[in-house]
Amino acid sequence: MKKIKEMWNTNRVVFVLICIIIICFIVIGVVGYNFFLATDTSTYGDRLKDIENISVTEEDKKAIIDNLTAHSHISETTVDVKGKIVYIRVTYIDDELNRAKEVAGTVLSVIKDEIKEHYDIHFTLVQENTEEKPGFLIMGAKNIGRNNINWNNNTPYTIEEETDSSEGE
To answer: Is CATH 3.30.70 the right assignment for the domain spanning 58-151?
Structure first.
């Protein structure tokens, strides 16, 4: 017992530091495990709460596809649901961009209101370049709580346009 007291008195700081290091390693291990290896939550976290109650069924997908393929300028339509986003991809043949946007907008009347209230709807409209018509690739989205589709501005610009705008400054 005398030796232990003597060792404690001479190396007290070292013992305290070793205890602190051991506690730190235990805390780092627990936090690291919970942060990196815990798999009890889904990829989307809490964002998909109550998704089972309002889901996009195969009939809903078929109604969207039927609505779009009824137009003669559409060659292919796909509908994919991931999380709370409905992806609609439409491939056009020989159509104008503004008319393609209008046709895609008609889909909103086919989709149930409860789906529109709980899901984002993303559109991708594609047409290849031909000699008669220029092609396009444009994306749009109808977010939850909105009633219209917001289209991106994919107008390409050239280096000449960039230098022209900087000369005016």
So the answer is: yes
List the one residue out of 128, 115, 108 whose CA is nearest residue 85.
Answer: 115
Q: How far apart are CA 136 and CA 91, in angstroms?
A: 10
pLDDT of 100-126, one tens digit each?
Answer: 888 888 888 888 888 888 888 999 999
How many degrees, rounded to 5, is the angle at CA 86 between CA 53 and CA 95? 145
Main-chain dihedrals φ then ψ at residue 122, nearest 5 degrees:
-110, 135
Strand 136-142 to 120-127 pairing: antiparallel
Render pLDDT for 2-35 as a digit per residue (tens, 0 to 9): 888 888 888 889 989 999 999 999 999 999 888 8
The percent of the chain in helix, strand and coil, each rounded to the nearest 5, is: 45, 20, 35
Q: Measured in whole angstroms, how far is the alpha carbon of residue 80 from the centre of its chain?
A: 13
pLDDT at 87: 95
